[in-house]
Amino acid sequence: MSDLPVMIITGGSRGIGAATARMAAGRGFAVCVNYRKNAAAAAAVVGDIEKSGGRALAVGADVAVETEVLALFQTVDRELGPVKVLINNAGILERQMPVAEMDAGRLHRVMATNVVGPFLCAREAVRRMSTGNGGAGGVIVNVSSMAARLGSPHEYVDYAASKGALDTMTVGLAKEVAALGIRVNGVRPGITDTEIHASGGEPDRIQRLQKRIPLQRAANPAEIAEAILWLASPAASYTTGAILDVGGGL
User: Is 238 a catalytic residue?
Assistant: First the structure.
């Protein structure tokens, strides 16, 4: 058990999640670094945190699978203590293609991780945080995408739609749990320098698109982590149901 406030970061082994984990640990959180497949990457994040004197734990779980979400939260309960902050960061996309070529299997996979997963994790967090259940309150931050507003035509309309659903969940859940001591907000990152572009089949996507961004560059994952952690902090104590665009002006 930890005396520090506990944060769970889904998809915390790489990219925005890993940057958020390292930064959160430096600001006094005990961090659960959730991962789906890349145990080595998660262990590296935990190792960095521990070398800096922080507390962290890597827990493997596919957020799209309900039994694994339950096991994730039970492990955190046992090893770290009651969750104070949930960062719903885990998300997937598949290879770029127009809607006319997408099959049902792809759509189910994307929606399962990007929509069902955050709902399941939020459910477990609310059950633990709710002052109506004897909890001490808490914060949920959902990591969306500027794609929810821009649509990602010819590339990832399914991904964009999943993030639009996450935005709607953010607003609705925020209103549902505000009186229970829980704040719920979202961050919409723009194009960010992470490995997700390679998983979509275009490792150099940033170079192709960055001139369209008013700030003329992609975000560094740490810049997105700063926004996430502001929403998770007492500095944002009167902010709930908000979605913060961090898109370089898009």
Answer: no
8 A C-beta contact, residue 138 and residue 232:
no
Residue carrying the six token digits 């996979």: 109
Catalytic residue among 35, 156, 159, 238: 159
How do residues 76-87 score in pLDDT, each as one tens digit? 999 999 999 999
- Distances, alpha carbon 67 to alpha carbons 30, 128, 187, in Å: 24, 17, 27
Quick check: pTM over 0.85?
Answer: yes
Instruction: For residue range 147-196, list pLDDT tens digits in order.
Output: 999 999 999 999 999 999 999 999 999 999 999 999 999 999 999 887 66
* Domain carrying residue 103: 6-246
Q: For residues 90 and 14, what is the distance between their CA atoms, to the nearest angstrom?
A: 10
| CATH number of the domain within which 224 lies | 3.40.50.720
